[in-house]
Amino acid sequence: MGRYNISKLIKIVEDPACGLPAEAVATLRVLIMSLRYLEEEITKLDGEIARRAKEDDLARRLMTIPGIGPLIATAFATLAPAAETFRKGRDFAAWLGLVPRQHSTGGKQRLGATTKMGERSLRRLLIIGANSVIIKRNVHTSAKPGSWLGEMLGRKPTMLVRVALANKMARIVWALMAHGSVYKAPAPTM
Known about the structure:
The structure is a single chain. By secondary structure, this protein is mainly alpha-helical. It folds into two domains: 4-50; 57-179, no CATH class. The protein is built from eight helices and two strands. The chain has helices spanning 6-14, 22-55, 57-62, 70-79, 89-96, 120-135, 148-155, 158-179; strands at 100-102, 111-114. The chain has a two-stranded antiparallel ribbon with strand order 1-2. A hairpin with an 8-residue loop joins strand 1 (100-102) and strand 2. The longest helix is centred in the first third of the chain and has 34 residues, at 22-55. The chain is elongated, with a radius of gyration of 22 Å.
């Protein structure tokens, strides 16, 4: 059904000439009441998360990264260990499970699939954030044709690009946590 079809369902159920059996209408009205209650609770929680993100210095700085909003920033501010725990951004990305498995021998480096061995919830949030950047690529300058992301989208499968962007975002998150700075978008190369 999807959340965007809820308003259609409500219109159908509330229309007296909808043609649905009375028993179904009674049951659907109970469902609609539950959905409205859940929507109110979600709105309250979204407000609380946004308020906490504005109050937390780290969360505010993380929200400067494209694809990271109040929910993801608050999750990292509360769930991620201190940046000093990791030597570099790659170690942090590895902790999240966003780095490729290495099969290296004889000086020849071969990379495999993403390990997915790390913190599952934060990894998923970063992939969702990366997906939002890809979906809104006409808005984000980092996704324009000629950029790293634009080139990747032109030659690689979209899911692979999402994970690669999430990996890049994880490294940026670590850098902001470690150095206490704010994200600065790279200058366009054209």
